[in-house]
Specification:
Blueprint: E1 5-13, E2 16-21, E3 24-30, H1 32-42, E4 47-51, H2 63-72, E5 77-80, H3 86-94, E6 99-102, H4 104-108, H5 111-120, E7 125-134, E8 137-142, E9 147-152, H6 153-162, E10 167-172, H7 184-193, E11 198-201, H8 207-215, E12 221-224, H9 226-229, H10 235-244
Parallel strand pairs: 1-4, 1-12, 4-5, 5-6, 6-7, 7-10, 10-11, 11-12
Antiparallel strand pairs: 1-2, 2-3, 7-8, 8-9
Helix pairs in contact: 1-2
């Protein structure tokens, strides 16, 4: 049985970690470097570091912050936000990132997935997909969830896999920040239709939500932010409960 991963997400805006509800109403959650070190020490399996305003403001993720965060952790670390070319990825990996996450840039130019996979290997390439249900269908959004497209979540996910992505980070915009649980039906469908790992994002509110997304949603990893940032769910306790429910985790 493959080990399931717990991944705190550090959403960064203006050098601070922030958290919102349904992608808006952001509030400060602390220093990303300090939080990153805490999570590594507390048993997180990986970290995701997203510069949430980089794409909208058309600027690259701040490399020196990535360097400082990477210096503090000894676990795999994904960086995203405003990444649009091979050179930028090369710089991020040299600063200490293990993987990169691309989203809007992949939608605008899908060949970027192929280029990154060919240059750095699929294991370095995470494609983040933000989607919400519109008239009963999951539609992909770009630019931090602010721009809707006509793209179907499942069609896009299949193309992403075919182009060489190593993982998909799926965020349900309907569930994000609500603490009502993950989008397990969509996650299970993604898991059934694809052969690469699916990271669940959006909706974590309690330990049962994590249990459900691993069992019902068939997720390979679960990502959350506020429940970790504000101390609502200790990572060690979460993993102990997952273990009790026959979900294989690293303790």
């Amino acid at each position: 049985m493959l080990t399931k991963r717990i991944i705190p997400c550090l959403d960064i805006k203006d050098g601070r970690t922030v958290k919102g509800v349904n992608f808006v109403d952001l509030r400060d959650a602390g220093d990303p470097v300090v939080l990153a070190k805490q999570y590594a020490d507390l048993g997180a399996d990986e970290l995701v570091f997203l510069d949430i305003s980089a794409t909208l403001e058309e600027r690259a993720t701040v490399l020196d912050m990535v360097l400082h965060v990477a210096e503090q952790v000894n676990i795999p670390f994904t960086v995203g936000g405003g990444i649009s070319n091979v050179e930028h990825v090369d710089a991020l990996l040299k600063c200490g990132a293990d993987k990169v996450s691309i989203n809007s840039s992949a939608i605008k130019r899908p060949e970027l997935i192929n280029e990154l996979a060919d240059k750095f290997g699929s294991q370095c390439v995470v494609v983040a997909i933000d989607a919400k249900q519109i008239d009963g269908k999951w539609k992909v959004h770009l630019a931090g969830g602010s721009i809707p497209t006509e793209m179907d979540l499942f069609d896009w996910a299949k193309e992403v896999e075919e182009r060489g992505a190593g993982e998909i980070l799926f965020t349900s915009m309907d569930h994000d920040g609500t603490k009502n649980g993950f989008a397990n039906n969509a996650l299970a469908k993604l898991s059934d239709e694809l052969n690469i790992p699916i990271i669940a994002s959006g909706g974590a509110g309690n330990i049962k939500h994590f249990i459900d997304t691993f069992k019902e949603g068939k997720a390979d990893a679960a990502l959350a932010a506020s429940v970790f940032h504000f101390g609502e769910i200790p990572i060690l306790k979460l993993k102990q409960e997952l273990k009790k429910n026959n979900i294989e985790v690293r303790l």
